[in-house]
Amino acid sequence: MRSVEQIKQCREIVAQWRSERATIGFVPTMGALHQGHLSLVKKSLQAGHKTIVSVFVNPKQFGPNEDFAKYPRVLDMDAQLLKDAGADMLFAPMATEMYPDGFATKVSVNGLTEYLCGPFRPGHFEGVATVVTKLLNQVQANEAFFGDKDWQQLQVIKRLARDLDIPTRITGVPIVREEDGLALSSRNRYLEPGDRAKASLLYITLRSLADEIMAGDNIDDALKAARIGLFENGFNVDYLELADANTLVPARNLDKPVRLFVAAKLGATRLIDNMAVN
Ligand code: AMP
After folding, report:
1. Using CA positions, which residue lies closest to atom 8 of ligand 1?
2. Which of 27, 29, 175, 274 to mutate to test the pocket of ligand 1 (most atoms within 8 A of CB)?
3. If you write DSSP's letter for every residue of 97-143 in order, what string do you get?
4. Ligand 1, closest atom to CA 37?
5. Quick check: is 278 in a domain?
6. Residues of the chain whose pLDDT is less than 70?
7. 150 within ligand 1 shell (Cβ under 6 A)
């Protein structure tokens, strides 16, 4: 596996691979890799791509009171996992090259970012959209892989790729979960043991809400009861919502594909999850 820091080096290797008629698959991450990330890598390798995984903890997508400083950074372990998984390149750009002095551009996606996490994390999706646009331009892959775990982020990235004519196909990959249903996340390691045991309640809540909604229960009542249930179990719920899977606008019927979305804090750890309903 090649391991590179500079954008120029990354581009040179990509050019070499292209000259050998390889296709390029790309998996952007913030590191602290787990089986969720590795499922994206597998998907890319299975598609036959030379597979590049970036690890970059993007300062622009963290709010002032969020966990940028203490976000886990374990690049050596990540490199080993990627090597074992068969990835072709680890691309770990430096912040000084990503955002040199005088950097002044923002990518902002309207509409989709007004819902769900948008109001709770001002500036977050601009940070994500800006860094992902840069990374997609740096790597120029045929296909890039993102997890359904961050469904809103996936929709934002599909939108910006279409709107900005970025010629990389954006592919979503199903959520990888722990045995008790908790969606794998680099942030799960922050959970206190007692909170870790409770955390699967997010999945259990989504699962039973989806069943209730499919059975025709009143959607507002079901959502309200589920929010109270989470609150009573110690979750500080930012939102628990049923929304159109594509536009993310809150939905109160099943006319179009809809999903359940939740974001809640357990202690200091903010967890998100989502699930298809129909
Ligand atoms: P992150 O390092 O958290 O920015 O995540 C990098 C990529 O991995 C994103 O596309 C995430 O959606 C995806 N990802 C993270 N956790 C999971 C999971 N449990 N299942 C599937 N994809 C995931």
Report:
1. 37
2. 29
3. HHS-TT-------TTGGGSTHHHHSTTHHHHHHHHHHHHHHHH--SE
4. 8
5. no
6. none
7. yes
Residue at token pair 């008790």: 180
Which residues span the domain enclosing 204? 186-273
pLDDT at 75: 98
Ligand 1 in contact with 42 (CB < 6 A)?
A: no
Nearest CA to ligand 1 atom 7: 29
**What is the per-residue pLDDT across 110-145, written as a single tens digit (0 to 9) for each?**
999 999 999 999 999 999 999 999 999 999 999 999
Q: Which atom of ligand 1 is nearest to the CA of 32?
A: 2
Distances (CA, A) of 228 to 13, 25, 107, 128, 237: 53, 43, 37, 31, 9
- Indicate if 262 and 135 belong to the same structural domain: no
Are 158 and 205 members of one domain?
A: no
Does the CB atom of residue 54 touch ligand 1 within 6 A? Answer: no
Residues 201, 163, single domain; the answer is no
How many domains does one find in the chain?
2
What percentage of the chain carries pLDDT values higher than 90? Answer: 100
pLDDT > 70 in the chain, percent: 100
**Does the annotation count 37 as an active-site position?**
yes
Q: What is the residue type of 201?
A: L
pTM listed for this prediction:
0.98
| Position 181 in a domain | no
Kindly state if the Cβ of 30 falls inside 6 Å of ligand 1.
yes
Q: Tell whether ligand 1 has an atom less than 6 A from the beta carbon of residue 158.
A: no
Task: Give me the catalytic one of 34, 37, 49, 124.
Answer: 37
Q: Is 54 helix (H, G, I), strand (E, B) or coil?
A: strand
**pLDDT, tens digit (0-9, with 9 covering 90-100), for 69-103:** 999 999 999 999 999 999 999 999 999 999 999 99
Task: State whether 33 and 78 are in the same domain.
Answer: yes
Contact 21, 138 (CB under 8 A): no
Ligand 1 lined by 1 (C-beta under 6 Å):
no
Q: What was the pLDDT predicted at 48?
A: 98
- Say how far residue 214 (Cα) sits from the centre of its chain: 27
Same-domain pairing of 129 and 94: yes
Q: Are residues 83 and 168 located together in one domain of the fold?
A: yes
